[in-house]
Amino acid sequence: MAATAHIDDLTVNEAAHLAGVSVRKVEKSCEEGIVHKKKYTGYLVKREVFHVPAETVVYTAALKNCANISPNKTFKKRLWRFLRASRRLEGSFGVADLGEGLMLNLDAIAGTEWSLARSYLAAKNKYLTSDPEILGGEPITKGTRITCRSVKGRVDAGDTLDDLVEDYDGEIPKEVFEVALTYANSHPVRGRPGAGKPWR
């Protein structure tokens, strides 16, 4: 039986979505031997998918936001080692001294993405679940039958997250819908989309 992903790991798609980069960018960092991905059983969907450490979000966001630098592999390895050694899931990374006079203020160039990743990880573990007995194991918000995909369906159809909060008389916090939407956006439906309105 495959191991389950660590609570602080993200799928490749989640890391890319939170960093604001293409999935290809994350895959490339793995192919270069900088970031190491491992196949684990997913936290919500019980199938094996590739996961990467949460710091991948900062790594790829920093490279994206340093458009004026052409980093070589040595630079990339130093940045990754700094991030992995820091393991700052509870806070910020500050300034990385990468040698040869190069300093990166990671809070300035990737702080927003890192904050999103930390919030997402905490909220995903707190608010989302799946149960084979409920809607065939489709990821849902805890204590409800509201699927992550139905939240995305509502938003794609023009509703706002505030509309959803109002529809449930404020009993479900906005944060729940935010994490459900992020999850759905970073886990696109496989195969051809079905017809109809999934939230009905």
Characterize the largest beta sheet: strand count, sense, and whether it forms a barrel: 3 strands, antiparallel
Helical segment tally? 8
Strand line-up across the major sheet: 1-3-2
Radius of gyration: 18 Å
Describe the structure.
The protein has 200 residues and is an alpha+beta fold. It has 2 domains: 9-127, no CATH class; 130-186, Arc Repressor Mutant, subunit A (Orthogonal Bundle), CATH 1.10.10. It is 46% helix and 12% strand. The chain contains 8 helices and 7 strands. The protein has helices at 12-19, 23-31, 56-65, 73-86, 106-127, 148-156, 161-167, 174-186, and strands spanning 9-11, 38-41, 48-53, 95-97, 103-105, 128-129, 140-141. The chain has a 3-stranded antiparallel sheet with strand order 1-3-2. The chain has a two-stranded antiparallel ribbon with strand order 4-5. It has a two-stranded antiparallel sheet with strand order 6-7. α1 crosses α2, α1 (12-19) runs parallel beside α3 and α5 crosses α8 (174-186). It is elongated.
Topology (SSEs and partners):
Elements: E1 9-11, H1 12-19, H2 23-31, E2 38-41, E3 48-53, H3 56-65, H4 73-86, E4 95-97, E5 103-105, H5 106-127, E6 128-129, E7 140-141, H6 148-156, H7 161-167, H8 174-186
Antiparallel strand pairs: 1-3, 2-3, 4-5, 6-7
Helix pairs in contact: 1-2, 1-3, 1-8, 3-5, 5-8, 6-8
Summarize the structure.
The chain is α+β, with helices and mostly antiparallel strands. The chain has helices spanning 12-19, 23-31, 56-65, 73-86, 106-127, 148-156, 161-167, 174-186; strands spanning 9-11, 38-41, 48-53, 95-97, 103-105, 128-129, 140-141. The chain folds into 2 domains: 9-127, no CATH class; 130-186, Winged helix-like DNA-binding domain superfamily/Winged helix DNA-binding domain (Arc Repressor Mutant, subunit A).
